[in-house]
Specification:
Blueprint (H helix, E strand, L loop, with lengths): L3 H14 L4 E9 L4 E8 L6 H6 L16 H11 L3 E7 L3 E9 L11 H11 L4 E8 L2 E6 H7 L10 H16 L6
Parallel strand pairs: 1-5
Antiparallel strand pairs: 1-2, 2-4, 3-4, 5-6
Helix pairs in contact: 1-4, 4-6
Length: 184
């Protein structure tokens, strides 16, 4: 994965496959304390503890089409390469939460990437999932949810092809105010 937005896309896909109806994504950048922290929480089916212990192994996957699952192990590796941390918690029937913290100034810290495009793509591709997204830079924040966007669109479905560019522009303009692309 070459940037954090691609990690978000990959991790959220796991939540979608786990039948999550609510997915929360938080990206926090703290320049004073030199970290970028990504949190993804869902209310999907969760994982049994024995599988959870193995999920950071690239040769552990629930997919039948291939024998490797690289998303979670790569996220963990990329966070730890910077001197950061990675945690994952899951409970069957409740959901999963993972957190990856990166040392922002470290040479191996990944760029943010196309965060606005990624979030817009997820919201428009899965309109029946309630996405709750928050980006925080120091003490400034922007948040958006699927239900807020749906209300603003007044009946136009999120998966209508004309909606994606509007949603992407809205998210990007708010992220630009946070100067998130200049920090990652």
């Amino acid at each position: 994965m070459k940037d954090l937005s691609l990690h978000i896309l990959d991790i959220v896909q796991n939540s979608v496959v786990a039948n999550a109806k609510v997915i929360q994504i938080i990206l926090e950048i703290n320049t004073a304390n030199d970290y970028i922290e990504l949190t993804v929480k869902d209310n999907g089916r969760g994982m049994e503890q024995d599988f959870l212990k193995r999920v950071i192994d690239p040769f552990t996957t629930t997919r039948t089409t291939r024998k490797v699952g690289l998303g979670i192990p790569l996220l963990k590796q990329n966070a730890e390469l910077t001197g950061g941390t990675f945690t994952i918690h899951s409970e069957p029937g409740v959901g999963t939460a993972l957190k990856a913290r990166f040392v922002k100034s470290h040479i191996d810290c990944l760029p943010i990437g196309d965060l606005g495009g990624t979030i817009a793509l997820l919201m428009c591709s899965y309109p029946d999932i309630e996405f709750k997204v928050k980006a925080v830079v120091n003490s400034h924040e922007f948040s958006v949810s699927t239900s807020e966007l749906s209300d603003a669109l007044e009946g136009l479905p999120l998966n209508d092809p004309s909606v994606y560019p509007v949603v992407k522009e809205y998210i990007n303009s708010n992220l630009d105010e946070l100067q998130i692309t200049n920090l990652g």
